[in-house]
Amino acid sequence: MSVWLTIIVAGIATYLTRASFLLLGDRVTLPATVQRALRYVAPAAFAGIAIPAALGSDGIGGSIPPDARILAVALGILVAWRTKSVVACMAVGMVTLWFLQSVGL
Question: How would DSSP label each residue in 12-51?
Answer without folding.
Answer: HHHHHHHHHHHHHTTT----HHHHHHHTTHHHHHHHHHHH
